[in-house]
TrEMBL record:
GO terms for biological process: lipid catabolic process; proteolysis. This is Uncharacterized protein LOC111402347. It comes from Olea europaea subsp. europaea. Residues 83-396 form the AB hydrolase-1 domain. Keywords: Hydrolase, Lipid degradation, Lipid metabolism. Pfam families: Abhydrolase_1. InterPro entries: AB_hydrolase_1 (IPR000073), AB_hydrolase_fold (IPR029058), Pept_S9_AS (IPR002471), UCP031088_abhydr (IPR016969).
Length: 438
């Protein structure tokens, strides 16, 4: 079922205006060559960042500065030879990997001795597009109307003036916020290949330079689209006969081809053609998640929404709420449109439709562990297997979590569910440990 919210005439005019501007922008930059990657550790972390360190890496040939959450390896853990990169799913940030101290994939891995890094791709979380002109502008803070009334007047004129100033400030703030949103929308013009060719390579190079593994390789885990990115890296490098820079890969609920499965994402496919025809610039997944959260208290809608994320009794209610309110971000329509090719014959392809990633997985020799949840409605086990079967048998392992009588695992349960630390995490550690050789 697809819910369509009616737009006011004003909203419609704004959407048309934004679309007309975005239509003239060219999101692709063919022939980009990676330059030296630079980055830095942040002196201070915002409260939302629960990692030990926060780093920023600059993406060459762009203004993007990507956030890397670092969890330093525990001194009590086994000494590891490779750093570990975690990639999140579509339209999500780092929070899904670190929901709470006792429900944190990242914390578990660093306690096992892995130098763990979560990448927030462009447009997600703390990653931002750096604009020199904006950075040089002075920061202006509106004064509190109460500050102008030093005598704390209580007469009618003072109250009316205070209310008027407050209304004026709120109106001005709304206009500024709206303009910022319009400016931001105009910057959301990237696709999957930008992540693959620019963001992930920049992050990997930065981590390599920082950690200095002897063989120059990383271990990597990807959830949902994060796993799709890892598959695509193996495919492209296998096709070219190049070193992928990865020692071993774990994917969680990921596939390059959903055509044979009953994925719930197929309900979104009717939106593809209208989005392409209208040149819709973004899909505000984060705003929609927050807006729909109060509606989710209605029994039927709540059960449908929750089943997409977590199986029954597998995620604490407060963690589910945190995930829904804080984990999701705005998605560029061009990214959504490219990912929709995973539901077409041949599976996911590049932006030009000339390279099908699944076809070339057979040329990779990197060990892969593909994990699935038995009640994952977004990426069912059959979708996961459709991709992993393309990898040479000596390099691929496949496992489905969940039992006929329970417990069951849905899309996010294999990352931050109540029992993930007992079932999923140890399986991942055992696999990575076997391939953590210098």
């Amino acid at each position: 079922m697809v819910f369509v919210l009616p737009l006011s005439d004003f909203q419609t005019r704004v959407a048309i205006q934004i679309a007309s501007v975005v239509r003239d922008l060219n999101p692709t930059r063919p022939g980009i060559r990676m330059k030296a990657v630079t980055g830095t550790r942040a002196a201070e972390k915002p409260a939302i960042c629960t990692a030990d360190e926060l780093h920023f890496v600059h993406v060459p040939s762009s203004n993007w500065r990507l956030a890397l959450w670092r969890y330093k390896p525990s001194a009590q853990g086994t000494r590891r030879n490779h750093p570990l990169l975690l990639l999140s799913g579509l339209g999500t940030n780092a929070i899904g990997y670190d929901l709470a101290p006792d429900s944190s994939f990242a914390r578990y891995m660093c306690n096992q001795g892995f130098d763990t890094w979560i990448l927030e791709l462009r447009g997600a979380g703390l990653s931002a597009e750096y604009n020199l002109r904006e950075a040089n502008q002075p920061h202006i803070t509106a004064s509190d109307p109460r500050d102008s009334n030093t005598n704390h007047e209580t007469n009618d004129e003072g109250i009316i003036a205070s209310h008027f100033v407050g209304l004026q400030e709120r109106f001005s703030t709304s206009i500024v916020d709206f303009q910022k949103q319009v400016d931001l929308v105009l910057k959301y013009r990237w696709d999957f290949d930008h992540y693959l060719e620019e963001d992930v390579p920049a992050a990997m190079e930065y981590i390599r330079n920082h950690c200095r593994p002897d063989d120059g390789k990383l271990l990597a885990i990807g959830h949902s689209m994060g796993g799709i990115l890892l598959y695509a890296i193996l495919s492209k490098n296998g096709h070219k006969g190049k070193n992928s820079g990865l020692a071993a890969v774990v994917t969680l609920g990921s596939s390059l081809d959903y055509t044979t499965s009953r994925s719930s994402l197929k309900f979104l496919l009717p939106l593809v053609d209208p989005a392409r025809a209208l040149n819709v610039p973004v899909i505000p997944l984060g705003a929609l998640s927050a807006a729909l959260h109060p509606v989710a208290s209605r029994p039927y809608f709540f059960l449908w929404l929750k089943s997409q994320v977590s199986a029954q009794n597998m995620m604490h209610p407060e963690l589910f709420e945190k995930l829904m309110l804080n984990n999701f971000c705005t998605i560029p329509a061009k990214l959504f449109l490219q990912l929709s090719t995973a539901f077409q014959k041949g599976g996911l392809c590049n932006r030009n439709g000339t390279f099908y990633y699944k076809e070339h997985l057979k040329k990779s020799n990197i060990p892969v562990l593909a994990l699935a949840g038995d009640q994952d409605l977004i990426c069912p086990p059959e979708a996961v297997y459709e991709t992993v079967k393309m990898i040479p048998r000596h390099s691929a392992s496949f496992k489905v979590f969940g039992e006929p009588r329970g417990p069951h695992y849905a899309h996010y349960d294999i990352v931050g569910g109540r029992l993930a630390s007992h079932h999923v995490y140890p399986c991942v550690v055992e696999f990575l440990s076997r391939h953590d050789q210098a």
